[in-house]
Amino acid sequence: MARRKFATLKSFLNYIGVEGDRTLFTWVSASEGDRWAQVIKVATEKIKALGPAKKMIKKIG
Amino acid sequence: MENIETKLREEAKRLLLEKKADVIIGYEKGTLPLTATPCFITTPEEADKLVWNNLCTQNLAKFVHDLITAHKNSQKRVKPEDRKKKVVGIVARGCTTRSLIIHLQERQYERDEVCIIGVPCDGYVDGKGLKVKIGGADIVEGTIDGGQIKMKTSDGDKTVALKDVLAECCLTCRFNNPIVSDVLIGSPSPAMNPDAEYNAVKEFEAKSMEERWAYFTKEMEKCMRCNACRQTCPSCYCPTCFVEQSQPQWVGIGEDKSDTQVFQLMRMYHMVGRCVDCGSCVSVCPMGVDLRKFLKKIDKDGWEMFGNRAGSSMEDMPPLGRYDEHHDKEEFIFNP
Ligand code: SF4
Ligand code: SF4
Ligand code: SF4
């Protein structure tokens, strides 16, 4: 089940030291426009607060 | 152990004579002192090679999958009515039977294609740990007797207690006796110390995010991408591993740190509900990467989140294949 995969992935990433707030999962139905906007707004705020990702980044070139 | 070995050889002979198995995968004495190595036995006479002791390291379930897959591929162009069935016999301790259960649950082969010779287990010697214990000396000769390992080494005679050099996975093993078997050799071994199995993970969880990341990075820097951990792991059997896929290429093959981290992250993450803590990957790793620190977390999550221990029973199906509406936690869901 996908949700179990998400739950374990989030937990594992957190365990190896990747901030939990970088891995966000939720369900939004196509009819829930307001909720969609809210989710994106809060998610963006959280990510901005964390700043650019520095872990597992590959520099090309 | 002598007694178990004698019985094991008798049973192996019988199974081959009665054509209950076409090949038996077991362990024989290794070429280096104090080692045992996998062997494949097809005639009753060879059965006398078989050994069973604390030097039998590798999880043999890997070979069951390899042999059956190779056999099936060889039969593909044979007319269905002419196809031959092959039964693979295997000397299996607790963790090996767990891997077999995973293969069966994942429909890799049928139960009647494998003949399980169950053996009780009291753990195996961590070769790298032993080497450290004797100050890096070379072992010239060695015997295990009455819980003691006696060695002639390049640095004189040495004796080490067996319990001090058992592999980490064995010290806290919960399933050291076979879970399924067709033939059972000897009587069950006493339990190891499963109550302590998550101690190291708990300690690690209590560290700060940055400390955890620093440790992960440090360990992964040791890794040289030899893929030995994947090769030996019974749960790693994809015909084409994501590591080698090129369209798309999931992970770079070079020396970039992030590629190695992603390789490890993905391989380990594919072990959710599938890692049996046999320690084979740890023991084959030439660089001594602390894989277990991470794999054991996956095992712990499987138990705490879904009440599942990989391959612990035929009936308990893989956790990622199902969902429990009433007990699954929802705290991972982002709900602003
Ligand atoms: S993990 Fe358990 S069953 Fe496997 S070798 Fe160690 S003690 Fe034996
Ligand atoms: S990941 Fe390692 S410990 Fe787990 S099943 Fe595979 S080889 Fe065994
Ligand atoms: S066996 Fe060790 S060095 Fe080789 S790929 Fe696995 S972790 Fe890396």
Entry summary:
The complex is a heterodimer of chains A (61) and B (336). Chain A is mostly helical and 61 residues long.
Please tag this protein with its features.
heterodimer; A: 61 residues; mainly alpha; 0% strand; globular; B: 336 residues; alpha/beta; 3 domains; five-stranded mixed β-sheet; three-stranded antiparallel β-sheet; 8 strands; 33% helix; 13% strand; binds iron/sulfur cluster
Structure overview:
The complex is a heterodimer of chains A (about 60) and B (about 325). Chain A is about 55% helix and about 0% strand. The longest helix of chain A has 18 residues, at about 35-50. Chain A has about 60 residues and is mostly helical. Chain B folds into 3 domains: about 1-125 and about 170-195, no CATH class; about 125-165, no CATH class; about 200-330, no CATH class. In chain B, the strands form 2 sheets. Chain B has a 5-stranded mixed sheet, sandwiched between helices. Chain B has a 3-stranded antiparallel sheet with strand order 5-6-7, covered by helices on one side. In chain B, helix 7 (about 210-220) packs across helix 9 (about 255-270). Chain B is α/β, with parallel strands linked by helices. Helix content of chain B is about 35%, strand content about 15%. The mean pLDDT of chain B is about 95. The interface between A and B is large, with 31 and 40 residues. The complex binds iron/sulfur cluster (3 copies).
